[in-house]
Amino acid sequence: MATYDGLFETLGLETWCGGGATDGPMTMAELLARANGSQAAEGADPSVPLMQTPFPSLDALNRSCAAIPRSRDMTEAVENGFLSVKDPLKTVLDPLTQPLSWMLDLSLELFQDIPWFIMIPLLVAATWFASRRIGVTLFVLVSFLFMAFIDYYDDAIRTLSIIFVCTIVSIVLGIPIGIAMSRSNALQRTVIPILDILQTLPTFVYLIPLIYLFSVTESKIYGIAIILYAVVPVIRLTDLGIRLVDRDVIEAADAFGMSQRQKLWGVQIPLALPNIMAGVNQTIMMSLAMVVIASLISAPGLGVKVLAGIRNLELGVGFVAGFCIVLLAVLLDRSTKAALSRIDASVRS
Amino acid sequence: MSGEGDVKVAIRRLYKIFGPNPKTMMRHVEGGMCKTDLLEQYNHVLGLQDINVDIRAGEITVIMGLSGSGKSTLIRHLNRLIDPTAGEVLVDGENVLDYGDARLAKLRQNTMSMVFQKFALFPHQTVLANAGMSRRVRGERAEIADTEGRRWLSRVGLDGYEDHYPGQLSGGMQQRVGIARALSSDSEIMLMDEAFSALDPLIRTDMQDLLLELQRELHKTIVFITHDLDEALKIADHLVILKDGTIVQQGEPQEILLQPNDPYIVDFISDINRARVLRVRSVMEVTDRAGEGVAGEVEADTNLERVIALSGGDTNLNYRVMEDGRQVGLLHMRDLVRALVPVEAASEDRRVA
After folding, report:
1. Could you tell me if B74 and B51 are in contact, meaning their C-beta atoms sit under 8 angstroms apart?
2. B299 has which bridge partners?
3. pTM over cut 0.90
4. Which residue of A has its CA nearest to B184?
């Protein structure tokens, strides 16, 4: 006898229901409860006090009427639904995303094959050319020397290589999407909710369908997770940047008969560049955040060390790896921001 | 290429209605519905109503009106930055509304250039690149664009600023770049949308003088938008006064000043210094008789202020009016003084008489 028996009786649906709770797939919690012999929940006594009346949820209704699916059946249906589209989805997505695996593997090899005494000066030189700031450049040098000294250089460089590839792919995908959005209000209206979802979905949730779709041995599995998460800001800020370009200037471009392409390359992109670069900066920061979480699905780098810290309770390893991630984050942020302010200065001077 | 004085651009029965369904509203407007009714009953704004203007080659046509009168909307119809709801815009006899995208781009690149109120320079390009922009847009080589840019920058008095960025220049200098940009396209028609309104009064006067000086040399067909009557009277060959999207009066500025046909214009002109704006030609008696007691000679284009100074305030004098060394009329100081009295609208004038 369950709480809502009376409801189905009055509605005359007993025959449709065909009795009380059915057996079906159970949650781990239920299994444990059964193993412990505490069947109290199942055979609930009919006189439930008013204050404890359960919400007429799937499970509560199922106890009175077997025809109504349980919550567990519902999640199973979702799973089956996903599994049924998985194969066709995989046949399309697999070849499409294959180049990402190649790029990630190639870059990983390249970054690791270059010896430290070439790689570190290279990174320092790149920082100098992008930022032209002595402070930032020195900071990059010291950080890498420090990480090398404490033997975290290899992991840091792997993380950096993944961020490098994912940022480039995000920019290549994101800027055209942003430009297209800035030109069509309809497209903007459809894309913005998708971006909102991508940005608010808990990062772990990205990983679930990816594990089903791709093999964990392939690099692209974490590449996709990172790109999906990191591509959002560059799209948003490209769209915004182009829409914010002074209308008077656009009108002048029109009045002098500029073509769409001349306007895009000669006026809109140069003037939106500060915003686009702010988006790129955010994209880099978000790929760094995701590359740590993606270590759960085999992404190499500092994240693996953090994961080891959690799994094996190696507090020191986890802390130091975490500190190295912070170091990477700060140096990536500072050097891209320094580069950004240089662009700003040239646009607004 | 049309000769001077020919109609270069003709605006014919031009209407612009703003709102979701402008085409269907044309019926009501043609049926005589006024602006307020259209707004109240159908929620459409009547921007321009039955505009007919002939813009002559080599002249400065000034379109004047207060904000909201539709003057900026009107000028944007000439190069189709805004498309009209109905009507025609004929440039050299061709209706630009029939143009496709490619032909329209050609019109904007070669035939019409534009100067903007807020300058609208490209902030990320140097002054030189801005000045030569119109050339580069139509695919001419960089050297040509730079040579032309340099030439016109120097012509507007900006030698030495080629490598600066617009943001580093003052407003007046930025607008000089804007003018150089328009001139370097070598277009026959120049549209100037409140080009000097954002500038300080003194700089504005400088720029007006610069424009008149350039015009004496270049004889462009200029359409100039302004809300400033003094400015309009100073530079206009042909003045169009716009109010609430309709033309109240158009003609030679002196004529409008002496014979305003609408109380709105009377209001408008009541505050200006008539002595400075009116010219001898407009108040003289047209004659070639020698006249007695002539105190001296004045040029037909002299303004009355200067004649008053010349006469020392004596209203009994007469002057011989000369143009190109020939006498074209006689100026009686008494007529001059009478012309300084602000006129009521022509209709009321008649009633008094």
Report:
1. yes
2. B322
3. no
4. A256
DSSP secondary structure string for all residues of A124-190: HHHHHHHH--HHHHHHHHHHHHHHHHTT-HHHHHHHHHHHHHHHHHHHHHHHHHHHHHHH-HHHHHH
Contact A249 B165 (CB under 8 A): no
Q: For A346, name the nearest residue in chain B, comparing CA atoms only.
A: B124
The secondary structure of chain B in percent helix, strand, coil, rounded to multiples of 5, reads 40, 25, 35
User: Environment class of residue B299 by beta-carbon count within 10 Å: exposed (0-12), middle (13-18) or buried (19+)?
Assistant: middle
The CA distance from A342 to A136, in Å, is 13
- Shortest distance between the Cα of A206 and any Cα of chain B, in A, equals 41
Residues of B with CB under 8 A from a CB of A: 79, 81, 104-110, 112-114, 116, 118-124, 133-134, 137-138, 165, 167-168, 181, 185, 191
Question: Running along chain A, 349 residues long, what does each successive block of 10 average in pLDDT?
Answer: 76 75 66 64 58 84 82 89 87 88 93 92 92 91 94 93 94 95 94 93 84 85 92 96 94 93 93 91 92 89 91 91 93 89 69
Sign of CA dihedral B116, B118, B123, B129: positive
Note the pLDDT tens digit of each residue in B105-120.
999 999 999 999 999 9
Evaluate whether B54 touches B31 at the Cβ level (below 8 Å). no
User: What distance in Å separates the CA atoms of residue A234 and residue A275, rounded to the nearest whole number?
Assistant: 9
**Pairing mode, strands B285-286 and B246-251:** unpaired
Residue from the list A252, A266, A349 with its beta carbon closest to the beta carbon of B120: A252
* Chain A residues touching residue B119 (CB < 8 angstroms): 248
Residues in chain B with CB shorter than 8 Å from the CB of A262 are: 137
Tell me which DSSP letter residue A216 carries: T
Out of B124, B134, B165, the one facing A256 most closely (by C-beta) is: B134
What's the 3-state SS for A25-82?
A: CCCHHHHHHHHCCCCCCCCCCCCCCHHHCCCCCHHHHHHHCCCCCCHHHHHHHHHHHH
CB-CB neighbours of B215 under 10 Å: 17
C-alpha pair distances (Å), B241 with each of B15, B57, B58, B231: 16, 20, 20, 13
Closest CA to B181 of B124, B127, B123: B127
Nearest alpha-carbon partner for A348 in A253, A245, A266: A245
- A254 vs B81, B113, B119: nearest CB: B81
- Searching chain B, which residue's CA lies closest to the CA of residue A254? B81
Answer yes or no: are the C-beta atoms of B237 and B249 closer than 8 Å.
Answer: no
Distances (CA, A) of A253 to A130, B7, B99, B198: 30, 27, 19, 20
ipTM: 0.84
How far is it, in rounded angstroms, from Cα A140 to Cα A127?
Answer: 8
SS3 B8: strand
Closest CA to B131 of B103, B157, B94: B157
